[in-house]
Design brief:
Radius of gyration of chain B: 25 Å
Radius of gyration of chain A: 18 Å
Distance between the termini of chain A: 47 Å
Order of helices and strands of chain B: HHHHHHHHHHHHHHHHHHH
Shape of chain A: globular
Distance between the termini of chain B: 21 Å
Number of domains of chain B: 2
Largest interface: A-B, 35 and 27 residues
Strand content of chain A: 15-25%
Number of helices of chain B: 19
Order of helices and strands of chain A: EEEHEEHEHHHEHEHEEHHH
Oligomer: heterodimer
Strand content of chain B: under 5%
Helix content of chain B: over 70%
CATH architecture of the largest domain in chain B: Orthogonal Bundle
CATH superfamily of one domain in chain A: P-loop containing nucleotide triphosphate hydrolases
């Protein structure tokens, strides 16, 4: 359950997010929008790298706005980045353990289970001891997701996890993302350009355009809306007129 | 060569397993070293051990966090100053003063690290450079304590007092082992941290601070930890240097040495403990060697510049990284075979030499061992040098070498020997290594240069003859061992 109330962000004269108010309740929520729509800025607001000029964000009823970025992980917010953040000279296991080091667990066994469980969940058990530099692009994206699942998070935010993946790899990714709410009882907030990935995974999708909410609702319905198609593909009448 | 993607990866091992090779190396050097070295070289190597520890802290900050600290050598001075002050002023036992000196240097390191939380790259380097210069100025003004009055403890006119070495280690030999113990302890602390929680946190920070913060890592805490640890160990080295000669020289900690140490840590390799050892050897042992040969030690600086250039061009992992990469592909059969044959050859040569009275047993043994060890360790030195004349010359030489090697390898195969496709490169390499090792050995072990050369060449020739004679038997043995134990160091880092 994410509540975003009247959030605005301003960088000088630019307003990447402008008075956004929205409640997101479904287990997997998608966020799409054309370039510069404010998608990543919204994610940065939620993970604490950008302070909103106005408004607040609540996750599961608790206000997170104003919490320092490194405290948000403890609170149960996890995110991935557009470019993967796997340390090249640590093994996959060490990369995931590095996250577990800064989460709290009841005992060693629980920690072990969380680390190995997350790696197994994304399907990388056979790569445990491979160094980050030797993992493929797909494996790195999956490893990023495994890192985000450590320490029973409340909200997992994925920033373009499908970038640069082929068809079959993307299918595996869809399965993994759909499994997250069942695996660690957390809500998933998925940002991607890939409409196939969004429509395959998300129960609900919001569309941003120029920092404003363009549409929100069940994914298929939202994608069919003419204003969404126009924001994505442009106005055909205008194109024809220009020609 | 295509990498087999589905080959199972070898786990890096527990932290203890990862530190063990280093500890064994230091232990062996500590035990065996004093048997070979003269008093002059023993003291030189004690200094090398101290500087290795300082280089280790430079490598810790640079390799783990990408932060350039040019003030580590200045922190060594700080640690040494406090150590001397406590012993002269309060007549403290050496170990206690050493540790307090290290703690104070650690605090200095922490203070130094505070701006590093917001700075990086060139700005951090400049800041630490200024701190190094400031320490140099302060030391020039107040001097190191040497039993004088007042809080500086510096004698202006009169007899300077020396501190006593620790009770455990009053002789040169004992003090060398004492320094090696602290070096092993300090480097083990660094390596252990790298293999456990702090190392993983540093890994995240190194990759991206934003990602580390998002993962809940306190960037401030882990950067401060690295600076404190680096400062404390550099300070420890300062105390050990003070104990070596009983005093420290006011001119002993110039800013230029800080920069040199940083450059040599890059040359040695900042991502492997061996890199720090190389840096220590280069900064102290090489000039000493040059002086020993009657060459001006400052000439080494020209070599350092060249070495830095090469390591910046050839790869960021430095000498240690290249050596580690080399050993990843070593097979255990070669190690067993090599150790047995080397052992036989060097002991045999050493016995012969001492029987004939041309050279000492230890010196001959060591020369033969080094010659055999370096027989292949620096492949392509000539090629690297050719690179300076341009790619075309290098390629041409490479083609000629390949053509000749191929012919020779075919002939070898026909005769029933193991075909060696790199025979020309090896021959050139041996030529280089032969003269180089001969030159080093005649300096360190007081063996006549020609005798050293004879030892080296007989070692290599005997090695070759043994291989000729036993080739068929060795080949089957090799294959059987390799099947059972493939590449043991593949995962070592």
């Amino acid at each position: 359950m994410i509540e975003i109330n009247n959030v605005s962000v301003q960088f000088g004269g630019v307003k990447p997010i402008d008075g956004l108010t929205v409640n997101l309740t479904k287990p997997i929520v998608g966020l799409i929008g054309p370039n510069g729509a404010g998608k990543t800025t919204l994610l940065n607001v939620m993970s604490g790298f950008v302070e909103p000029k106005t408004g607040w964000v609540k996750v599961n009823g608790e206000t997170i706005t104003g919490l320092p970025a490194h405290k948000r992980a403890e609170f149960g917010l996890r995110r991935t980045f557009q470019t993967d953040q796997i340390a090249e000279d640590l093994t996959l296991l060490e990369n995931v353990e590095a996250i577990a080091d800064h989460s709290t667990f009841d005992n060693r066994e629980a920690r072990r289970k969380a680390v190995y469980g997350a790696i197994d969940f994304v399907g990388l058990s056979h790569r445990l001891n491979r160094r980050g530099s030797d993992l493929s692009t797909e494996e790195r994206h999956l490893a990023e997701i495994a890192k985000a699942l450590i320490g029973s998070p409340k909200l997992v935010m994925l920033d373009e996890p499908g970038a640069g993946m082929s068809g079959s790899e993307s299918e595996h990714l869809q399965k993994v993302i759909r499994g997250i709410p069942g695996y660690c009882k957390s809500q998933v907030f998925l940002i991607d350009h890939d409409v196939d990935l969004i429509s395959a995974c998300c129960n609900e999708t919001m569309v941003l355009d120029f920092g404003k909410l363009l549409a929100l609702g069940p994914t298929l319905e939202v994608l069919k809306k003419p204003e969404v198609q126009q924001a994505y593909l442009g106005n055909f009448d205008e194109l024809e007129a220009a020609a | 060569m295509a990498r087999n993607k589905d080959k199972p990866d070898i786990p890096p091992g527990t932290p203890f397993q990862r530190v063990l090779p280093m500890l064994i190396t230091f232990l062996v050097v500590a035990i065996v070293g004093p048997m070979f070295f003269s008093a002059y070289w023993l003291n030189t190597f004690s200094t090398v051990a101290c500087l290795t520890l300082v280089a280790g802290t430079v490598a810790l900050l640079y390799g783990q966090l990408g932060m350039v600290s040019l003030a580590q050598f200045a922190l060594t001075g700080v640690g040494g100053w406090f150590c001397l002050r406590l012993i002269h002023g309060l007549a403290m036992p050496f170990e206690l003063a050493l540790i307090i000196g290290a703690v104070v240097a650690g605090l200095f390191g922490l203070i130094l690290g505070l701006p590093a939380l917001r700075m990086r790259g060139l700005y951090l380097a400049l800041l630490t450079l200024m701190i190094a210069a400031a320490v140099q100025v302060v030391v020039n003004v107040i001097g190191f304590p040497d039993g004088g009055p007042g809080w500086t403890g510096h004698v202006v006119n009169g007899q300077r007092a020396l501190i006593q070495r620790p009770l455990l280690a009053t002789t040169d030999t004992a003090y060398f082992r004492y320094v090696m113990f602290w070096l092993a302890a300090g480097m083990a602390l660094i390596e252990w941290s790298r293999a456990t929680l702090p190392g993983r946190a540093w890994g995240l920070i190194r990759k991206s601070e934003a990602a580390a913060i998002a993962a809940g890592v306190s960037v401030v805490r882990y950067k401060a930890l690295a600076f404190t640890m680096g400062g404390a160990l550099a300070g420890l080295a300062g105390g050990l240097l003070a104990g070596l000669n009983g005093q420290l020289d006011n001119t002993g900690f110039p800013t230029s040495q800080s920069i040199l140490l940083y450059a040599l840590t890059i040359v040695g390799g900042a991502y492997h403990w061996m890199g720090a050892v190389f840096a220590g050897l280069l900064i102290r042992a090489l000039p000493a060697l040059l002086n020993d040969h009657g060459v001006d030690g400052n000439l080494a600086n020209a070599f350092y510049g060249f070495a830095l250039l090469v390591s910046l061009i050839q790869g960021r992992k430095g000498l240690a990284g290249q050596l580690a990469d080399f050993y990843k592909f070593v097979r255990i059969s070669r190690i067993v075979e090599g150790s047995v044959i080397w052992g036989v050859i060097s002991v045999g040569l050493a016995l012969t030499a001492s029987y004939l009275g041309v050279a000492g047993f230890a010196g001959t043994l060591f020369i033969a061992l080094i010659a055999l060890l370096f027989r292949q360790a620096i492949p392509g030195v000539c090629w690297m040098l050719l690179g300076f004349f341009g790619k075309r010359v290098q390629d041409f030489a490479e083609d000629v070498e390949a053509a000749i090697s191929l012919r020779l390898a075919k002939i070898m195969q026909v005769v029933g020997l193991m075909p060696d496709h790199r025979i020309v490169k090896r021959a050139l390499n041996m030529l280089f290594i032969g003269y180089f090792v001969g030159w080093v050995a005649s300096g360190v072990f007081d063996v006549d240069y020609n005798v050293a050369l004879v030892i080296i060449w007989s070692a290599i020739v005997i090695r070759f003859l043994i291989e000729l004679a036993l080739y068929p038997a060795i080949l089957t043995l090799r294959q059987r061992i390799d099947e059972r134990y493939p590449k043991p160091f593949a995962a070592y880092r």
